Amino acid sequence: MKEELNRFIRIAEKLIEDESNHPVVKPADYDELLSYLDLELHDEAISDEAFEKALTDLVLRTPKTQSSAFFNQLFGGRRPKAYLGELLAVLLNTSMYTYKVGGPMIGVEKQILKNISRLVGFDKLTEGTIAPGGSMTNYMSMLMARDKFDPESRFIGLQKRLIAYTSEESHYSVKKNAAFAGFGRDNVRVIASDDKGKMRTDLLEQEIQKDLEEGYLPFYINATAGTTVLGSFDDLNAIAEIRDRYQLWLHIDAAYGGAVIFSSKYKHLISGANKADSFSINAHKMLGTPITCSIILTVHPECMYDSFSNDAEYLYQDDHDEINPGKISLQCGRRNDALKFWALWKSIGTKGIEQMVDHEFDLADYTRAYIRRNSDYQLYSFDDSINICFNYKEVDPEKICTLLNTKAKLMIGHGRFKENKFIRLIMVNSNNSKAEVDHFFKTFESIAEEI
Ligand SMILES: Cc1ncc(COP(=O)(O)O)c(C=O)c1O
Fold first, then answer.
1. Which of 343, 362, 385 is the last residue of a domain?
2. Which of 142, 285, 354, 380 pairs with 131 at a CA distance of 20 to 30 A?
3. Geometric angle at alpha carbon 66, from 378 and 395, rounded to 5°
C-alpha cells in the first residue's frame, strides 16, 4: 500500500499544479476524449509505469470541479481537512452498519447528528443518519411519512391514494421519489411559487382542501430551504401551521441552504426549521465537504426504525440497536461519510464553519453589487442567496455558458425561473475571494463581447 500512497501523492501533486495553471479542462467530444485515453481493459497485467500514466492522464482530463473557475453546480472548493478525513475513511473502508465494524466512527456520526440537531433547534429527541445524497434523504423522509400515515403499506403494499405537496421550485427528486415510494409522480401536487421562488402557502392550503374534498389522502409536504435555481427559502413557519392543521408530515429539504444554521447572520432564513418532522442538509454543498454527505434527522425516532429496520441474523450479532445504525439506514453496506465532515468541523470549529458560510454570502453580495451597478447586466435573483442569476446585454445564456467551457475559461451553467432564462452563478466555493469574482467578470465579458 505504501507504494500506492506514494503514487497517489505523485498524481495528486500533478493534479493540484495543473488545476492552478489550468482551472478548466479543455473539453472534448466524448469519443474523441476516449480515444486519447487508455481505458481499454485487457486480459494481461500492464507495467506500473503504464498504469500510472493511464491513471494520471485520466485524472488530468477530468473536469476540475474544485478549481477557482468552477461555478457550475452547488458544490465546489477543496477544504483540505475534509479531504484528509475522506482519504482516511477510504483507507479504513469501514461499513457503517454496526458498532462491531464501524467502532468509534459510529460515535463520529452520532456527534455530527447531535450537533446538527442542536443547531436546527429541535427541542425533541431526534434520530438520524447519513445517506448518499439529498435525493436519498428526501426519499427517506417520504418513506417515513408514508409508513406513519399508512403502517400497513409496509407489509401489503400501498393501497391508498396518498398525495404529497411541494413547490415548483423544489428539487426534481421529489417526483422521482414518489414513483419509488409507490404512490406515483402524478400524486405530487406541484404548488406554484411566488415571484421570489417561495412556495405559495395560500395555494398549498387550497390544494390540500381540494384533495380532501375529492377523497384523496394528503400525507406529506416537502418544503425547500435553499431552492436549487434561486436559493430561495420557503416560509417554514407558515407551512408548519398548515401541517398542524391537516396533520401531515413536514420534511424540510435544506440540502442546499441548510448551511445557514451555522450562521448567526443568516439563520433567520430558516426560521421554523425546528418545527419539521424531518430535516435534511448536505454537507457536500455549502459546507465544503467532498461528495456525498447528506444528513437526515427526524423527531420521530420510531419512524426510522419502522421504515428501515429489518432483522438480519448474519449481521446484527452484537450490541444494541442504538449503536448499530444499519437498523435505520437505506443501505446495508454504507460508506463512512461522517469522518470527512467531522474532520473539517473538528479542525475549524463551529465558528470556522460559520465564517465559511458567511464568506460565501459576502462573495455573493459583492457579485450582486457589481451586477447592480453595471447597466449591461440584468439581475433575476435576490439578496440572501449565493445563487446569482443574470443576463448580459442580449447574449444568449446557453451560448455563452457553452463557449466559456469550450474555450476552457470558466464552468458555469444556466437556469430558468418562470419565463426567464439566465446564467446561474453559484458562489459556493469558500476558498474563492473577491479576486476570483473580478476575474470571473473580466473573462465573462471578454467572451460575451466575442458573441
Ligand atoms: C434543494 C435540493 N435538494 C436536494 C438535492 C439533491 O441532492 P444530491 O445531489 O445530494 O442528491 C439538491 C441538489 O442540488 C438540491 O438543490
1. 343
2. 354
3. 25
Mean pLDDT of the chain: 97
Pair (56, 117) in one structural domain: no
Q: Find the 130 Cα to ligand 1 centroid distance in Å.
A: 14
Asked if 50 and 162 sit in the same domain, the reply is no
- What is the rounded distance in angstroms from the CA atom of residue 364 to the CA atom of residue 386? 5
Distance (Å, rounded) from C-alpha 126 to C-alpha 138? Answer: 17
pLDDT in tens, 39-95: 999 999 999 999 999 999 999 999 999 999 999 999 999 999 999 999 999 999 999
Distance 254 CA to ligand 1 centre (A): 9
pLDDT tens-digit profile of 196-247?
A: 999 999 999 999 999 999 999 999 999 999 999 999 999 999 999 999 999 9
Q: pLDDT confidence of 361, banded at 50, 70, 90?
A: very high
Confidence at residue 313, expressed as pLDDT on a 0 to 100 scale: 81
User: DSSP secondary structure string, 124-153?
Assistant: S--EEEEESSHHHHHHHHHHHHHHHH-TTH
> What would the grid cell of residue 42 be?
485487457
Model pLDDT, residue 54? 96
Counting from 1 in the atom list of ligand 1, the atom nearest the Cα of 226 is: 1
* Ligand 1 atom 16 nearest Cα: 228
Q: Report CA-CA distances (Å) from 365 to 313, 355, 401.
A: 55, 15, 22
Q: What atom of ligand 1 comes closest to residue 138's alpha carbon?
A: 4
- Ligand 1 midpoint to CA 168 (Å): 14
pTM: 0.97
Ligand 1-lining residues (CB < 6 angstroms):
74, 133-135, 138, 171, 173, 224, 226, 228, 253, 255-256, 282, 292, 294
Nearest by Cα to 413 from 425, 421, 428: 425
Q: Which of 289, 309, 343 is the last residue of a domain?
A: 343
Report how far ligand 1's centroid is from the alpha carbon of 320 (Å): 33
At 448 the pLDDT is: 95
Amino acid sitting at position 143: L
428 close to 285: Cβ distance less than 8 angstroms: yes
Q: Which of 138, 170, 282, 289 best tests ligand 1's pocket when mutated (most atoms within 8 Å of CB)?
A: 282
Same domain for 291 and 234: yes
Name, in order, each residue with C-beta under 8 angstroms of 20's C-beta and a sequence gap of 6 or more: 67
- Asked if residue 412 lies in contact with residue 447, where contact means CB atoms within 8 angstroms, the answer is no
Report which of 401, 403, 427 is spatially closest to residue 414, judged by C-alpha positions.
401
The yes-or-no verdict on residue 445 having pLDDT over 90 is yes
